[in-house]
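Structural prep section.
Before we set up the soaks we want a predicted structure of the protein with zinc ion in place, mainly to decide which crystallisation condition to try first. Input record follows.
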Amino acid sequence: MENYWNKEIECMPREEMKKLQDERLVKQVKHVYENVPYYKKLMDEKGVTPDDIKSTDDLHKLPFLTKADLRDAYPYGLLAKPLSECVRIQSTSGTTGRRVVAFYTQHDVDLWEDCCARAITAAGGTNEDVCQVAYGYGLFTGGPGLNGGSHKVGCLTLPMSSGNTERQIQFMRDLGSTILCCTPSYAAYIGETLKEMGLTPDDIKLKAGIFGAEPWTEEMRREIEKSLGIKAYDIYGLTETSGPGVAFECSEQSGMHINEDNFIAEIIDPDTGEVLPEGSKGELVFTSITKEAFPLLRYRTRDICVLSRKKCSCGRTLIKMSKPMGRSDDMLIIRGVNVFPSQIETVLIEQGYAPNYQIEVDRVNNSDTLDVYVEMNEEQFTDTVKGIQDKEKALTAAIKQILGISPKVHLVSPKTIARSEGKAVRVIDKRKLHD
Ligand code: ADP
Ligand code: ZN
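Run finished without errors. Recording the tokens verbatim:
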């Protein structure tokens, strides 16, 4: 039996949802045009007025907003409500540069928490559950978002924040946590620590995990599910659109339903800006149609994925997005070849390694170098030198087959690659330092 937080919205027939989006979009465009001079100027420059936007069919006429605009307008330039009506700010993690801040009215916080409540409910959460929130609390949206969603569902909420992994496990056991919310890399670390403490999934009561905020592969999902004895659900969001909960996974575990009553999604060609038909791979763009304080229109996320309206077994009619396997600016160009860190992760896990790795890219004598540091587990480590060299060779060949270029693989001792309590740092691109 599938659970819904808001069945009427989540299973709404497409035509009705479009009508709701049309109405909300028209209202939102007016609100932004009248209250955000920064965006009004972009619309004026494009020769578009609110009267030109009569429904979602006109969405493509609006100008895009980018992270550069957010940095340009920092801090108040995109605010659409007086500060006296705002009750909260959150900020991006700064993964790719200067942080940007987002503002929320109480209405915005409620909508955001509702989105997170949908995610928890879709993962089977009810007021009988104990929900351990091990995303970071503070400016990062992970902790506050899931905390609010957990309250709405009525779970007993453990506001752990990230870190202090042994204490996480102790509380998990003492209080019988049934749902864990954190980044996938931290979930993997908790699983590893559990084993090190001599415990098994039978010693804890977890049944589900809600993991997001960074890319992770299907292979990593299976690893985490095994190490914690749970079903692992993906959740997606970004500070600019509120935070986690923009999209969430259901029991089918094949893509995330986008909360379309709040966000209109488009896929565009990142080079030309052209809107691509459903099913095409491209850059995800969001228009928020219900937010008051920080309502971004056509915001370019730089996340690369595919949208699908294929019927879902859970009964939801909300459009689904595939797992973003990296941002357009995560993509490395190494010796002219496009490389996403997630491609390397897939190979590693397939070959029996844990997702503890780091990729180092450099430029020596005008040629790009690609070094992949991969941690061995205890059993692999007891191998002979020759055995380890053979493993390195095998891994090099497997990665070359996927990428088309040959890396230098270094197998390193167990526990030498730093564990992540938040978003993992997978790539060190030293070329940027030289430029
Ligand atoms: P920053 O952009 O500084 O990392 P945020 O904390 O707002 O700031 O992170 C949002 C970004 O995190 C998204 O744009 C996306 O790239 C990534 N992200 C969030 N959830 C997921 C997910 N489930 N899968 C892959 N990437 C994700
Ligand atoms: Zn579904």
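Observations: The chain has a mean pLDDT of 95.
Flagged for discussion at group meeting.
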